[in-house]
Design brief:
Elements lengths: L1 H12 L2 H12 L7 H8 L16 H5 L16 E3 L4 E8 L4 E5 L2 E4 H4 L13 E7 L6 E3 L4 E9 L8 H6 L3 H4 L2 E8 L2 E8 L7 E3 L6 E2 L4 E5 L3 E7 L4 E3 L8 E2 L4 E5 L3
Antiparallel strand pairs: 1-16, 2-5, 2-15, 3-4, 5-13, 6-12, 7-8, 7-11, 8-9, 9-13, 10-12, 14-16
Organism: Paenibacillus konkukensis
InterPro entries: PS_Dcarbxylase, PSD-B, PSD_type1_pro
GO molecular function, one term: phosphatidylserine decarboxylase activity
């Protein structure tokens, strides 16, 4: 009985207009006093932030904080692909004929995830990661490889939650939510960094200025409140670390695997 009720409640609250209202409050000075309580509830280590909490203008300003220099060393080993975010792995594995199988009990196609882009064919038998950022996590998104941005696309959509409930109980959330897709050319081929919006996320934003050429670990974008990043690696270009599995926690800059130079 309760699952259909919560599903209906989520459907009603997933409209962009409601998410914008939530975002507007989080950006207001009135939200600033909630920072210590928010940090305590979610176990956010405030000492890791680059500034004191009193220096942030709003809750959103704190949420999109940068970290103190040196806290996220980026793996510099040759041919390494690193995690772009602090996250839990909620899905990973080979892509089979364009199908991403069993992400919290649901299958997705690369075609729908990439909004029917002609580039879909590049990932038909590639590899994927689904990286979930909880409110506790650091919410800036960094570049997983040394490479060049070759295309960007904004896909409007819903703002359903991408947590355990959302992925299991809502229909095909990753391909129905708003997405910001970045395609990059690197030493092994191509990668798609798919940033998926979520409930109460007012926007996904690129850093400004954003150069076309980026080094591994450079800032790429950031979420305003929690969400998910899906990484898609081109067919025959990537080998994952053997010890990673669904449920593993990773930090930004940590190696996810290696790319095969072309």
């Amino acid at each position: 009985m309760m699952k259909p009720f919560f599903r209906l409640l989520t459907e009603l609250s997933s409209r962009k207009s409601i998410s914008r209202l939530t975002g507007a409050f989080a950006k207001s000075r009135a939200s600033r006093g909630l920072i210590p309580r928010f940090a305590k509830i979610y176990g956010i280590p405030m000492q890791d932030a680059e500034k004191q909490w009193t220096e942030y203008a709003s809750l959103n300003d704190f949420f999109t904080r940068r970290l103190r220099q040196g806290l996220r060393p980026v793996n510099t080993a040759e041919h390494t692909l690193v995690s772009p975010v602090d996250a839990a792995i909620t899905g990973m594995g080979p892509i089979s004929e364009g199908l991403i199988v069993n992400v919290k009990g649901q299958d997705y196609t690369v075609e729908e995830l990439l909004n029917h882009s002609p580039r879909t064919v590049n990932y038909k038998n590639g590899f994927y990661f689904v990286l979930y950022l909880s409110p506790t996590d650091y919410h800036r998104i960094h570049t997983p490889v040394d490479g060049v941005i070759i295309e960007k696309e904004h896909v409007p959509g819903k703002v359903y939650p991408v947590n355990e409930f959302g992925l299991r109980q809502m229909r095909r959330v990753l391909s129905r939510n708003e997405r910001l897709i970045t395609y990059m050319d690197h030493e092994g081929g191509e990668i798609a960094v798919v940033k998926v919006g979520a409930m109460n996320v007012s926007s996904i934003k690129y850093v400004s200025p954003l150069p076309d050429r980026l080094s591994r670990g450079d800032e790429l974008a950031y979420f305003e409140f929690g969400s998910t990043v899906v990484l898609l690696m081109e067919t025959n270009t990537f080998k994952s670390r053997n010890d990673l599995k669904v449920g593993s926690k990773v930090k930004m800059g940590e190696a996810l695997g290696t790319v095969k130079p072309s």
